[in-house]
Amino acid sequence: MGGSSPCASCKLLRRRCAKDCIFAPYFPSDDPHKFAIVHKVFGASNVSKMLQELPIHQRADAVSSLVYEANARVRDPVYGCVGAISYLQNQVSQLQMQLAVAQAEILCIQMQQEPALPTHQIVSDDRSLLHSNLSNLPQYLNFASTSNVIQDPLKRESLWT
Amino acid sequence: MSNSTRCAACKSLRRRCPQDCTLAPYFPSTNPQRFACVHKIFGASNITKMLQQLPVHQRAVAADCISFEASSRVRDPVYGCVGIITQLHQLILVAQRELAEIQGQVALYGAQQGQEQKRMAQSQVHQYNGPIWFTTSQQDPPHLD
C-alpha cells in the first residue's frame, strides 16, 4: 500500500482505498462532510452503482448533483429538493402572469396608436417564444401544497462547487 | 399474512409485510414501479429511516417527494432533480429579461403618448380665435364707438 491517504469514502467506511477506488476522484479526504451526507441519504453502495453506470466524464457532475440533493434533503427532510422546485415554479407562474399583463398593455397601446408607428416585431417574436417555453413547462408537482413549502429554501446556494 | 396483502416494498424485498409496516401506506402493491425507483436510488432501509424520523402526518408528502426525486434521477442519472432546478432558473432569467424589455416598451409608448397629447393640447390653444388684439402688439382693446 502506498503512502497516499484514503479518500473520504474509504475513511468513513473504514476500508482500504484501492488505486481504482470509484469514489476517490470525487470525495477527497479534506472534505469528509461531502461523502458523509451523500452516504447518509443515498448510501455508499447506491452511489457506487450510480457512478459505475455513468461514463467517467459525467461522474463529477453527477456527484455534485447528488451532494446538492442530499444537502437539500437533510435541511428539509419532508420536501428536500422538491421544495426548491415548487418555489421556482411559483416564480415562473408569477412571471407568466406579469408577462401576460405587460403584453396586453403593449397590445392596447399599439392598437391606440397609428399603424405607422413601429411595433417592434422582434420583441413580439421573442415574447411568443418565451410564452411557449413557459406554457410548455411541464407541471412537475401536483401534490405538494405550495403553501406548505418553505419560501426560497435554497437561497443563493451554489449548485456546483 | 397472504401474499396479496403485502405492500410493494415487502413484495420487492420478499419479506412478510407486518400490519405496522412503515412503508405500506406509501408504497401500495398497485404501484410496484414507485417503490422500485426509490429502492434503486435511496435503498429501502434509508427510506424507512427517513420516514420513521418524521411525524406520521408528514410522511405521505415526504414519500411523494422522495419518489419524485428518485424518478427524476432514474430519468436523468447525471443531474436528477437538479436538472429541473437549473432549467427553472434559466427560464426565470429569460422571463425577467423579457419582462424588463416589455415594461420598457410600455414606458416608452406611455411617454410618447404623453408628449403627443401635450402637443395636441398646445396646438388647440394656438388655434383659439379670440380677439385679434391678443395676438398683436396692441396692449389695449380697440375703443368701441
Question: Any key phrases for this structure?
Answer:
heterodimer; A: 161 residues; mainly alpha; 6 helices; disordered C terminus; B: 145 residues; 2 domains; 63% helix
Polypeptide structure, described:
The complex is a heterodimer of chains A (161) and B (145). By secondary structure, chain A is mainly α. Among the domains of chain A are: 8-75, no CATH class; 81-111. Chain A has 6 helices and no strands. In chain A, helix 2 crosses helix 4 (56-75) and helix 5 runs antiparallel to helix 6 (121-135). Chain A is elongated. The two termini of chain A are 31 Å apart. Mean pLDDT of chain A is 79; it is low at 121-130, 132-137 and 144-159. Chain B has 145 residues and is mainly α. Chain B has 2 domains: 1-75, no CATH class; 82-126. Chain B contains 5 helices and no strands. The longest helix of chain B has 47 residues, at 80-126. Chain B is rod-shaped, with a radius of gyration of 37 Å. The N and C termini of chain B lie far apart (123 Å). Mean pLDDT of chain B is 85; it is low at 132-145. Chains A and B meet through helix 3, helix 4, helix 5 and helix 6 of A and helix 3, helix 4 and helix 5 of B.
Kindly estimate the percentage of residues of chain B that lie in beta strands according to DSSP. Answer: under 5%
Alpha-beta classification of chain B: mainly alpha
Q: Catalogue the unreliable spans of chain A.
A: 121-130, 132-137, 144-159
Structure class of chain A: mainly alpha
Q: Tell me the number of structural domains of chain B.
A: 2
Beta content of chain A comes to under 5%
The largest sheet of chain A is:
none
Q: Which of globular, elongated, flat, extended, rod-shaped describes the shape of chain B?
A: rod-shaped
For the largest beta-sheet of chain B, the strand count, sense and barrel status come to: none
Could you tell me the number of beta strands of chain A? Answer: 0
Shape of chain A: elongated
**Most extensive protein-chain contact, per-chain counts:** A-B, 56 and 46 residues
Could you state the order of secondary-structure elements of chain B as H and E?
HHHHH
Strand count of chain B: 0
The pLDDT mean of chain B sits at: 85
Query: What percent of residues of chain A adopt helix (DSSP H or I)?
Result: 55-70%
Task: Report the end-to-end length of chain A measured between terminal Cα atoms.
Answer: 31 Å
* Through-space gap between termini of chain B: 123 Å
Average pLDDT, all residues of chain A:
79
> Compute the gyration radius of chain A: what is it?
24 Å
The total of helices of chain B stands at: 5
